[in-house]
Batch of 4 targets.
Target 1
Amino acid sequence: MSVPHSVPRPPLRVSSVHAGLIAALVLALSFGAMLALTFSMQNDVIARDRDHQMAAVSQAITAALDEAGRFALTQAETTARQHAVGRALAAGDRAALAELTAAPYAYLKSQGVPVFGFHAADMTYLLRLHLPDKFGDDLTKFRQMVLAANKTRRSQVGLEIGVAGTFVRGIAVINDGDRFVGTVEAGLNLEPILEQVKTLTNADIAVVLSQSLAELPPRGPGDKGEQFGDLIALASTDTPLFTGLLRDGAIRLARTREISPYRIGGETGAILVQPLIDFSGRMIGNIAAVKSFASHGAALQRTRIELIAAALIGIVLAFVAFSVLARMLKPRDEAQA
């Protein structure tokens, strides 16, 4: 009985077009994986650069507020060390105090120090050079910074909310001989400090108070700053920008420093929010900063277009090369068959 022989199958032939398509598909998958990895790495690099720049903005804000506080305290300390000032304050002589400090205050006012005044030992405001007709009011209820200086007999420096507004203040203790007779304060506006930081960092800055944390009374029609829930936009370098961000909820109360990406006017940007601390170390709101990174978006888009174009060109060239190679090898395979 004969055993049937199996008929050998002809070898599988792959056309040149199919070979090129297969090679192109493999390369496309490889290029796609490489592009995805590259894009992810680009995103990480940009995020790190963004966070680094916003951290620099945060440091610039802190440094500017500290420098302003030291300047205010220096002016107060310089005045407090004048013996004639101590004698006039001890005697409650408002006219003598005004005469002694009128010229220095005129200069300081031109340098951005609008608040300058003297507090008596009984915690009444003896003389406001910035409001000379307003005096004699009790400071025990609403001027915690003056109260701290009065009780501890030590200078105080930092941010404080007062009747005239929120200022970076320096308060120095005044003695007449060995006897404590009161304190003197110098206060700086926030807006020039914020503008200084903007010039250095190209970021817009805002000071935002929390009504609950700062324990502010209900607001009246003449109070400064627009309110959004619990937050009050006190001072900023761009009021319409921060008004919109607060209204949209893009800026919220934060107890730690937070940096988040944000699109500003169609451009890539970031928002920084960090605690706002008063002279006593109590959090009373936030400092917010917004910075645009238009160069990030443009550079990223340009780089990705170039990478995608290079990948497509590589795929097309691979398709053509493998198609030609498969066509060249086909006659040889047929001859060997």
Target 2
Amino acid sequence: MKKLFTTLSNIWKIEELRVRILYTLLILLVYRIGSFIVLPGVDPRSLEGQAKEGLLGLLNMFAGGSFSRASIFALGVMPYISASIVIQLLGIAVPYFQKLQKEGESGRKKITQITRYLTIAITALQAIGYVKSQIGPEARLISDPLFSISAMAILTAGTMFVMWMGEKITDKGIGNGISLLIMVGIIAQLPYGISAEFISRNTGQGGLIAFFIEFVALFAVIMFTVLIIQGTRKIPVQYAKKIVGNKQYGGVRQYIPLKLNAAGVMPIIFAQAIMFIPSTIGQFFPSAQSSVLASFSDYTSVAYNLTFAILIILFTFFYTAITINPTQMSDDMKKNGGFIPGVKPGKSTSDYIDSVISKITLPGSIFLALIAILPSLAIILGVNSQFAHFFGGTSLLILVAVVLDTLQQIESYLLMRHYDGLMKTGRIKGRSDVSVASAGSAI
């Protein structure tokens, strides 16, 4: 406890860090207040009790409950994330975007500008679908077309404002702005999930003992998730010695840390998008629903979870392959006079790195698939659906990863001012603590 208070005191003594933390907290407070401001012309009482399940429930969690409340921030940062994913994929397939990625700071600014424009377009389309599908006539106090036009304009402006707040946290706060906004939205739903599970258990379904066991299981799952995110395979790299005058350069051994889960949460997001297709088809053709469509619409069914796990494994290999280029790593290593001991430079090096990536990606993808289906397994075992979301899936991965990144940012400020870090046993490693070998995890 004394170590904790000493660390907090050291954090408060660093003026720059103190200002950044207070600025971040202020922005997060504005975001949470905005999530409770209902769209003009909507009766909030008619929206009470509308539970969101499946993908809509996940979107509502990411938005901190704004989605179900018809808030001005109802769409949250998801349109921006969608735009970022599209631009990232275009950077792999389209030569123009590949050129921009190689132009350094100027190219990055152009990509950011294009991403913002694409975010506006995606937000406008999602706003149309949100107004038409989520806000029924009974909840509207203003008649169309005035309501639809005003709601779509406000939703688009709300998402752009949220994106601006995320960028401000990144620039003037403690970093990871967009990720922090998502994390705060997820944490905001945790009290509701805990209270719902407590009420459910306290009414006779297992009692408080089962409630305590669930918390122990949740702690074990969080520790397991930390191991998956932190797990790396270090490849030693030896650099040749260079003597210039009386000074020696190089000759040191470094390591390329290849992450066990280099794809982050992207495989789960892609797989969830595909698994949402059967239920979408069922909504358009309710009379044509078969037992197959029904089983794939039930996210607790065996068919759904088995298919979901297989898709995650496949997408993990795919996303890792397009984000990590062993050939480029081998060429960069050769240009800098580096080599892997016992492996010839050039093609042999790239083949060796590729084989290591393949070997660590398989267990990483299996563990990721297991984490993704844990919420469904928790629901089958009797856990309340609101609380079960925190037993795994995208929400837990984002929570753990963002917390590690934030702690790493704070620790870097402490170490730069010659204070002790946050831990006695070693440095905290977040997702940003990667080498050129890893493209990092996108959110």
Target 3
Amino acid sequence: MSDYLLEMQGITKSFSGVKALDGIDLRVRSGECVGLCGENGAGKSTMMKVLSAVYPYGTWGGTILWEGQELRAGSIRETEAAGIVIIHQELMLVPQLTVAENIFLGREPRTKSGLIDFDRMNIDAQKLLSDLRMGHINVMLPVSHYAGGEQQLIEIAKALSKNAKLLILDEPTSSLTKSETAILLRLVKDLKSRGTACVYISHKLEEIKEIADSVTVIRDGRFVGEAPIAQLAIPDIIRMMVGRDMSNLFPREPHPIGDVVLQAIGITCLDIDNPTRKRVNNVSFSLRQGEILGIAGLVGAGRTELVSAIFGAYPGQHSGELRLEGKTLRIRSPREAVRHGICMVPEDRKLHGIVPGLGVGHNITLSVLDDFTQSGLIDENREFSTIGTAIDRLRIKTASPLLAIANLSGGNQQKAVISKMLEPKPRVLILDEPTRGVDVGAKYEIYKLMFALVKEGMSIIMVFSELPEVLGISDRVLVIGEGELRGDFINDETLTQERILTAAITPLRQAA
């Protein structure tokens, strides 16, 4: 009898003749959490789709042993019946339905007459949540009532209601706050103590160190190795992931900073649902040529609203003045911003950055499509020459420029969105959380690109939630708190995470 609950042996998977997985192994014991690590495009999500039968038996090679027996599942329903449940990075909840209705969606308890037994469903849901130390959640309220962190916990409760023996968590904390992340990690520890096994996929290696018992690393679709977490430091995991030493994660490079390029004066944004509330309140700042200006602050501080207003993308009422090289601009849409030389990579690439069903290349050229159009026709040769150069520049991993961008990993999608916003050759580039959901290797490439761009004279505004990134990359840091500008700091040896955080949480009247 095998010691392992799950064994994946020599798994292979190809798309259009291109191998996405080439002999991958993975082993998980009951009550064990295995951290699955690798760069974007390494094959982690593909591997989990094989395991959960998103890709059914017969479409891949190798062997899966489940509880010592070969598993040949043809559908997700079969793997869930066996006890394998996957929680995807994008939550699969219906916001308008109640918590209980979401947990038992498609498996609702019935009365003798065949109707849904709502009383029993609510009682069962509340008991399940209480057992998971989530009893504060009201199962009769719509899911939309709860924040992202609690929705992630509800998704886990939904998985466990299916009697999960193995829980696959794919980037579960990518959009969570630190406090929400702490709650989720505590829940995973509780599940381990009850015998539930977990495969935990995350680019946040400090979470892997905290929660995993062992680590399996894959690179470019191949198995690199596995080891107990106690034997690995974070630099060791990074080295296995990227195949090289990355002792300096923030490759700061000296670059000249010139005169003021952009001035934002009195930017104010009103809340979409409550116009009496100001999400951004009279914020003014300047940006110099060749400067990387970091914007820091807590979640909900108004950072995204501020940069969206500058780009003409804020959907609510907003006001203020913009001056580019001394000339006053009136920007009412992103199209006008791009025309004036201001481009932005949005925070939510899936919602605002890509057209999922469109090819990678066509996503990249969307921002400059007019450049290839003559007499209403597109010069495809010129367009594909531009696409090829863009893909090579950012090393975007794709089987073909025509492959739908939705099929790419999150990091490669992000590179494509950045490429799209570089095509208009902007004077000012705004990056809102450009490394969210991106592995350490891709982060490094994005940082290197930023320094190359400012050396060429471009100016960059970037929003980062992770303070080490803010300090590792910025020339100057603006701190936003509750919609107000609470600090403007030169990033020298005196600037620390503590100074930034103190400014973020201290109201102006107290600071004064």
Target 4
Amino acid sequence: MTQTVSAVGSGVAIVRRPNRVRMLWLLVVVGVLVILVLISLVIGSRDVSLDDIVAALGGSTDNIGQAAVAKRVPRTVLAVAVGAALGLAGGVMQGVTRNPLADPSILGVNMGASLAVVVGIAWFGLATATGYIWTAIVGAAVAAVFVYTIGSLGRGGATPLKLALAGAATSAALASFITAVALPRADISATIRSWQVGGVGGASFGTIGQMLPFFVVGCAICLFSARSLNSLALGDELAASLGERVAIVRGVAAFGAVVLCGAATAVAGPIGFVGLVVPHLCRLLVGVDQRWLLPFSALAGAGLLVVADVIGRIVARPGELDVGIITALIGAPFFIAIVRRQKVRAL
């Protein structure tokens, strides 16, 4: 069994693994995710037994343990869905921009979605989950286009550093706008502040059901774009010579990522760094082939958010820390490490 090695823009050699090795890693990641889901059902302010889990999954809520499991099931499902959406969206954004620093939170996409939702709540009486999602998608799309346009100005086009700086500046400005909109509204400011942290507590199957169509559409678009993203990695000119319509490929893939980011932000708040950390770690396992990287990013993103949710319940018992805080603690050092690597220029 042979392995080939190629250099990427980060200056780190990435092993292109045979498909048998990739399939083995896929089984491992799926197995780990299943274990994490079971741990999420067991651990909380009150630990429960396996019997309680089985009974609760069967619809029984006869005791406190079973009732606790019944509450943890939807939040675990939501953590899996949101984590998968953010991990997949991050992988697509890095592929579309060929930027190792691309991430929905760093590029201002999550904050654009947040501002749109807050404005909708405060000024237009937005109240339904579906309305949140549509509004968040529009806000995410506007923010993404704005940041990419600003980052593309000047010599060199949209470099990783320029996009990161444009995204950081845009995120800061949008966060200020959110505060300005929410502060005069005492009736909604507490709810908005809590939502802005990012969390999966209080999840319900009704909310998940309203998010599901957007999640399916966004995932389908992103995964079907994988082969074309491989062509884009060779450079625009070579991709065009291979028959790819570069602008259309970028637009369609970016639209899929925006749909995922908007839906995830609408139901869970602006959770950061999942889309940054996960694709980088997955490249170490399966290489740079987007046909493998994107599904792995979705699975690993789901696992990371479930882990963050479990950690948040453990460290603050009997209360909890929202997953947005945990992912920021994990992701911020990772982001600094990437920025400090002077050889990082593009993927």
